[in-house]
Amino acid sequence: MTKVTMTVNGKAVSKEVSGNTLMTEFLRDELHLTGTHVGCDTSQCGACVIHVDGKSVKACTMFAAEAEGASVATIEGMANADGSLSVIQQAFQDHHGLQCGFCTPGMVMTAAALLKENPKPSEHEVRDYLEGNICRCTGYHNIVKAILAASGQDVSGIAAE
Amino acid sequence: MYSFEIESPTSVADAVAALGKEEAQALGGGQTLIPSLKARLAAPSVLVSLKNIDEIKGVSVDGGTITIGGGTTHATVAAEVGGAYPALADLAVNIGDPAVRNRGTIGGSLANNDPSACYPAAALASGATIVTNTREIAADDYFEGMFTTALEEGEIVTAVRFPVPEAAAYIKFEQPASRFALVGVFVAKYADGVRVAVTGASEDGVFRWSEAETALTSKFSADALDGLSLSGDGMISDLHGSGDYRAHLIAVLTKRAVKAAA
After folding, report:
1. Contacts of B2 (CB under 8 A, 6+ apart)
2. Where are the alpha helices (DSSP H) in chain B?
3. Which CATH number characterizes residue B22's domain?
4. How many other C-beta atoms are found inside a 10 Å radius of the C-beta of residue B260?
5. Residue B187 near residue B169, CB atoms below 8 Å
């Protein structure tokens, strides 16, 4: 066992972990932050995307020990301080960017990483950036629309599908 | 996963010492190794994470040579080598997806030598030099077949040096589910000749297509490749494509790469 200390959603945490404890297990089982979902557990689906030191990573393909000293952000930290939805989360609701919701935490975290790097992405850039996030419900159309809307771009001309 | 300890040294010297322990294994970005550990394909007693070793990270350009630290992520390569070597940045930005590119490293990719990985094609086509904690290895001597390299036990890829070509392009035909290269071709034109490296296709891993290199060195144009073909014998044959199909793709993609580079 190794002691790891990190900041998760602005809060300092310190726990004993095994070498083979995945970041997904640490967040879900140790911190009870179950918003980070485990879909495929093979780094394909992106339901487990979190931010580590500001960069999007797949929490299922990283060990908790590797996050020693890091600043970690998960979906639980995405809402505004008053509990209202963040711009990206609100856009997903407004534009029906989710159906079953399983992929949504990863989609929102990936979208947040994209908009930080590229505040006004094109539709092509949004689709390209979502390459590692799989949704089985929506056909992606409304997810892309929600992200474009969250970036402040006019999506009224994009037909609903 | 089997159980193991993780160590996170901050210098190459400490990492080499840690790798001297029995059943120790280096951990780069883990984007291939962690799935392998989950599948119990490896059973190390100690994983030595290279993530905190700053001396093996970063990109530097010196005249006609780019040096990339072994611990540099694909995202950093994509962001930082575009000006000096656009084809290499283009390769890096198309590996996996953004989250994978934020973890995976060039040293990890070259040490693993997956037969469908992109970086081996860039290193071989560029005549790169793989620098380790003990020596320098020419790319032509480094790749020794699928998942096999010249690296010794405990040897770490600390840097890769790429001579910048006059023109280059990498074209891959993606396997649509995994996004790995079903076939990828890297063409690089230097003053002393053209080099063509192929990934994803051969059962022996990345290789140079010497007939195409000879033809393109005489004339750097896609039509110089007319009539050239490879046999499907010895090519990977699986549910995604037969060996003959992969051989056909090599010829098609090499022409596309030459057009993109010219």
Report:
1. A20, B37, B40, B43
2. 12-19, 33-38, 74-80, 86-93, 98-101, 106-112, 119-125, 139-142, 210-218, 243-261
3. 3.30.43.10
4. 16
5. yes
Which domains does chain A carry? Answer: 2-76 (3.10.20.30), 87-150 (1.10.150.120)
| Number of A–B residue contacts, CB under 8 Å | 75
Supply B83's token pair: 């000006």
Q: Is A121 helix (H, G, I), strand (E, B) or coil?
A: coil
B47 reaches A (C-beta below 8 A): yes
Q: Are residues B79 and B145 in the same domain?
A: yes
Q: Check which CATH number belongs to the domain holding B116 and give it.
A: 3.30.465.10
Query: Among residues B50, B58, B45, which one has the least CA distance to residue B8?
Result: B50
Distance CA A146, CA A130 (A): 13
Chain B residues within an 8 Å CB radius of A51: none
Q: How far off is chain B from A20, nearest CA to CA, in Å?
A: 6
3-state secondary structure A56-99: EEEHHHCEHHHHCCCEEECHHHCCCCCCCCCHHHHHHHHCCCCC
First to last CA, chain B: 48
pLDDT per residue as tens, chain B (262 positions): 999 999 999 999 999 999 999 999 999 999 999 999 999 998 999 999 999 999 999 999 998 999 999 999 999 999 999 999 999 999 999 999 999 999 999 999 999 999 999 999 999 999 999 999 999 999 999 999 999 999 999 999 999 999 999 999 999 999 888 888 999 999 999 999 999 999 999 999 999 999 999 999 999 999 999 999 999 999 999 999 999 999 999 999 999 999 999 8
Residue type at B224 in one-letter notation: A
> Which residue pairs from B33-37 have beta carbons closer than 8 angstroms and sit at least 24 positions apart in sequence?
B33/B108, B33/B112, B34/A22, B34/A43, B34/A61, B34/A62, B34/A63, B35/A42, B35/A43, B35/A61, B37/A20, B37/B1, B37/B2
Residues of B in contact with A70 (CB under 8 A): none
Q: Which of A18, A41, A44 sits opposite B3 (nearest CB)?
A: A18
Residues B71 and B33 in one domain: no
**Partners of residue A56 in chain B, C-beta under 8 Å:** 98-99, 102
The answer to whether the CB atoms of A20 and B96 lie below 8 A apart is: no
Query: Do the Cβ atoms of B30 and A66 come within 8 Å?
Result: yes
